[in-house]
From TrEMBL:
Subunit structure: Homodimer.
Pfam families linked: Pribosyltran, PuR_N
Source organism per UniProt: Filobacillus milosensis
Gene3D superfamilies assigned to the protein according to its UniProt record, in alphabetical order: 3.40.50.2020, Winged helix-like DNA-binding domain superfamily/Winged helix DNA-binding domain
Protein name according to UniProt: Pur operon repressor
Length: 270
């Protein structure tokens, strides 16, 4: 390969394998190049990643060492991503009966969900995470986007047990929106005891569902290292059950009469 071709191939390789450790001999054999040339290539790619604000290549020394791509996203890039989403969410056609806002198209769009995943991964950059945890159903694509960047598995909490998942652990919780007692369940083999988890959800009002997920994690002796929500509702004297969390967007006001939606950036940007 010419160097220009090898740089393209290696850049794509690192982007496709975030947080995975590869030895220099691996690249020497893969691209049939000298070790010194591969080292120079890695320095060039690392410099470009950092210049673009999308992460860095780190080197781990020792016999079992190597190089790995650590994804990140600069605040400038994150701001640009959220500004695009805010413009989309301001559309009054999104207003649903009851003051809800239609967001399923955004959560189902590969481009948007991929960018949101990068922002969340950057927000929790540096944390030791073993699993990304969410509750079915709208949080699932969001959780997978975050997990792909962090390079960890996704764990999905469900409302009803599935016979294909074996024995489960279940708890009751108070839904923040309906104030009803609901149930969430998780297969016993989903999470190893003592793991570190990141909880991700698409929307939070009073935080009842997220609090329920936190309580369920206690049943597995898991440590909640972080909580991320795509959007939160403006706190209007709500008895919010969760304090320590990161939000990317905030719905300040949804007026069904005036047909207006006011959206701002979440607390991650404060």
């Amino acid at each position: 390969m010419k160097r220009s071709e090898r740089l393209v191939a290696m850049t794509n390789f690192f982007l496709e394998h975030p947080r995975e450790l590869f030895s220099l001999p691996y690249f020497v054999n893969r691209y049939e190049a000298a070790k010194s040339s591969i080292s120079e290539d890695i320095d060039i790619i690392d410099g470009m990643f950092q210049k673009m604000g999308i992460g860095e290549l780190t080197t781990v020394s020792g016999a079992a060492g190597g190089v790995q791509y650590i994804p990140d996203l600069s605040k400038e890039n994150a701001n640009h991503c959220m500004e695009e989403l805010i413009e989309l969410l301001k559309d009054p056609a999104r207003i649903l009966p009851g003051g809800y806002v239609y967001m399923s198209d955004i959560l189902g769009h590969p481009k948007h969900i991929r960018e949101i995943g990068k922002v969340f991964a950057a927000a929790f950059h540096g944390l030791d995470i073993d699993y990304v945890v969410t509750v079915a159903t709208k949080g699932i694509p969001l959780a997978y986007a975050v997990a792909q960047v962090l390079g960890v598995p996704v764990v999905i909490i469900r409302r009803d047990p599935k016979v294909t998942e074996g024995s489960t652990v279940s708890i009751n919780y108070v839904s923040g929106s309906s104030r009803k007692i609901q149930t969430m369940v998780l297969a016993k083999r989903s999470i190893e005891e003592g793991s570190n988890v990141l909880i991700v959800d698409d929307f939070m009002k009073a935080g009842g569902t997220i609090k329920g997920m936190m309580n369920l994690m206690q049943e597995f002796n898991a440590t909640v290292k972080g909580i991320g929500v795509l959007a939160e509702a403006e706190d209007e004297d709500e008895d919010r059950k969760v304090d320590d969390y990161i939000s990317l967007l905030k719905f300040v006001e949804v007026d069904e009469v005036k047909q207006t939606i006011q959206v701002s950036k979440g607390n991650y940007f404060i």
